[in-house]
Amino acid sequence: MNKHNILIVGVGGQGTLLASRVLGNVALKQNYDVKVSEVHGMSQRGGSVVTYVKMGDKVYSPIIEKGEADIIIAFEQLEALRWADYLKKDGKLLVNEQKISPMPVIIGKEKYPENIMELLRENFKNVISLDAFKIAKDCGNIKAVNTVLLGLLAKSVDIDKEIWIEALKETVPQKVLDVNLLAFEEGYKRG
């Protein structure tokens, strides 16, 4: 592997930062150089959150420019659309089908865009979507959306599944580890 440029995008409170820590831990376990940069908007209020994760033999900068992401993991549809132009032409877009209305939609100033998934599929050839929220709920905890998506990611990259499980065990709090391991497995199966 030369490198992976991965963008993790979502809404505050969805667990994007924990996902980036797990991913960073996975990279370290592979003896890769890894750089992580987190950008928080109004994350405490449900605003946009983006994390850049670059891993490889040697990484000099954590920033991913437009058209450079090998993979975008979108925790929500609108965030997928918002950040899609960062994806390489042959990159993979992994999308949670969940919709979370931003404040302008909540207060009635804007409408949530329609047909986001269709638009993404028209413009990008490698789009994988699933209802990670429902899967996490079925596993026992709606906050496990992040590990469902990490399972989906794990199936998409050339890193052994056991490395991911070790990283989850070291990073996820013990009290919610079992449900997160189950959620990871469910995402991995759908990859």
Molecular structure report:
- Helices cover 40% and strands 24% of the residues.
- It has one domain: Pyruvate-ferredoxin Oxidoreductase, domain 3, CATH 3.40.920.10.
- Strands 2-3-1-4-5-6 form a 6-stranded mixed sheet, sandwiched between helices.
- A hairpin with a 7-residue loop joins strand 2 and strand 3.
- It is globular, with a radius of gyration of 16 Å.
- With 191 residues, the chain is α/β, with parallel strands linked by helices.
- The protein contains 8 helices and 6 strands; from the N terminus they run βαβββαβααβαααα.
The assigned structural class equals alpha/beta
Q: Could you tell me the radius of gyration in angstroms?
A: 16 Å
Give the CATH level 1 class.
Alpha Beta
Q: Tell me the number of helical segments per DSSP (H or I, 4 or more residues long).
A: 8
Would you identify the regions where 5 or more consecutive residues have pLDDT less than 50?
none
Gross CATH architecture: 3-Layer(aba) Sandwich
CATH topology label: Pyruvate-ferredoxin Oxidoreductase, domain 3
